[in-house]
Input
Amino acid sequence: MFTDLAQIFNFTLNPFALISLAAAVINFSLVVLILIKAEKNESNRWFRLLLAAIILWSMSEFLARSSGTAEGYLFWGFTGRPGWVFIPVILFGFVLSYTGKDLFKNSLYWYLTFGPPLAFLFFAWNTNLISNNSLADTFRVPWGWETTPVAPYFWVFIFWLETFLISSVAILTRYYFKTSDEIRKKQTLLIIIAVLIPIIGGSITDAILPIFNIQILPVAVLLTSVMSVVVTYAILRFGLFVINPTLTAKTIIDTMSESLIVLGPRNTIEQINKSTSDLLGYKKDELIGKSIRRILPDVKSWDTFLKRVIIPLKENKFVRGFEIDFRTNEGTLIPVSFSAKSLVENGHLIGMVGLARDIRDTRKLINRLTAERDKISVTISGIVDGVFAVNKTGHIIIFNPAMERMLKVGQDDVINRFSDEIINMYDNEKKLSIMDIMPKHEVFEDKVITSKKNIQILGKDGKEIFVDLTSSTIAGNEEINLGVIVTLHDVSKEHDLEEMKLDFVSMAAHELRTPLTSIRGYLSVLQEELRGKVDKEKMDFLQKAFISSGQLASLVENLLSVSRIERGKMKIEKSQVDLLELLTEVVSTHEDQAKQKKIKLKLIKPDEKLPKISVDRFRISEMVSNLVGNALTYTDGGGSVTVSVEKKDNEIITEVADTGQGIPEEALPKLFTKFFRVSGVLEQGSKGTGLGLYISKAIVEMHKGRIWVKSTLGKGSTFKFSLPLDIPEEKSANKDRVITGKGEDILGGTSQVKKTFTKKGKKIA
Ligand code: ADP
Output
């Protein structure tokens, strides 16, 4: 349509067009002014958008009116359409933003708001429905050009436009009546007037009259510009849309949850906020002008208030968190935390500003927590076990009466002291620090950190106590600066009992040893002397007595070994030993027994030469002897027992394999425990003590080795043990107490010790 550039750019000067130009210039200046002077906030952004739309509209009107041709007029009219089409919605957006409403949160509102103007724009550009674009209907008028008749649906657009404009005015008016802020009121009134000018004037000249075919100079642009000026004036004059400090302060005071009380120099209440009247149940005027005494319950509290608040304030001191009760209109007392500062102007005290915070909930919470704490402390006090807790740095924060009794110290002497200074703990004679039983990382659940048995504690008086120790902590321990809570269960009595038992066993065994040796001596002499002199039956009796006394002697020896192991008194004396040579010796001492039982006993030599190892020759051969002896005992005639040895990595592994009866699977886990013997046929067939393997295990472990077994019932068993090539020097029999099962009830009784120390089942032969 618009192809003829010569027509479009054909301008003639028209004085009326200058009105539109003036409007464009005015609006443009306002944009600049606002950009420079006003706050950059949302309302102002909407307003600047509004001005931009007006500029587009007025520029297009200026060019259209100055056009020398009807085509030019129509073309320039086209360019301005986005301006006027969007003005109503932009104004609406501005009003919403100014009154603090947020309609555009929802995208549906966006479509509903911006959909229609886009449709109008589309129809105005492409059809003659909204705007008459017909060249034939265009004619010259004194102020430029006019096209009549007006497009048939132009009124639809006008109707929509008026709806938005009237809604905007309505929202502003409502806001005007609602706001209590005087400045805001004035500003709103100005904006309402400003918006009404173009609505009324512009609608009449540009829309309503043309609809009725009455043509006068359209002044909407100019009137809209008047609106722009007035609103800009409001922006700059009243700091409109700029956050105003007084207003801000007022809003904060009215909305804050703390109660504000402003006192005059003579202690009268000058000002209170909504929270104060809500809290105390008074209306504003019932308190304003009254003495502060009115809200204090009695003379005594007034005295304290005077001393703790008024006097310090008059001395220009800050009052912080002073707790007092206020009395409400109904007479109830409300505890508050009161902070205040004096207001001084030119060196004179003009008043005091106080803030009161309702602490009823806090009080309740504190009471509840106190009750909870008391409950816990009563519980802890009542516990017979020693309980103490330390913070993250190991300083004692809780110490119960049982602890006091245990260590013979008073609570007051230990609280806040470093735990290690007070509680001397030893784990197998090694000092145990509180830091060793602390969680190493932050803990997110209640959990046990360590659980240790038989910890030795040295009391102040040098008395030693034995305890089972459990350290635990709770989730969020970091926050409350809790390290661990330690429970000490006194097992000294059990420990003493255990010691007594060991003493008894050891003493009994010692006492039995001497007579046994002489019995065996005499029996052996008798056997020699009477050989051939008495009948075979009597010789058999003698032989049986000799064998039985031998068994008794080995039981005594075993018991002595066990008691030594348990007390940690078993020593190993190391020397460089050629293990193959040792094995050869042990095997040869069993050859007779093997021959008698018709069992093939052999030693398989290793392919490579074995290095010497540092072990206790006597103990190791005692142990191997036990293994070989067992193998022979539990293997029937015709079977075989094979001893072999090999070097593997850093160890020498010795193996004693037999083709005997084997060991039932369920017995395997208990095999190396004290007094354990496989029940049933096997048990009855021999007269062992059930201590051999237990002692073997202890010996191997003292050498830092391991012992284990594989066995199939009816097919045979293979016992293996390893000895490390280089044995660390520091170990001593003592340190191995725990490994060797210290604490197991040597007599197999049902005492407390047994429950405490062992969960393994066992059986006495
Ligand atoms: P004991 O003095 O009874 O032999 P040990 O501690 O040496 O005591 O052995 C414990 C039990 O293990 C034995 O009573 C026996 O039932 C079983 N046992 C040990 N070695 C063998 C083996 N080579 N074959 C089958 N059973 C065995």
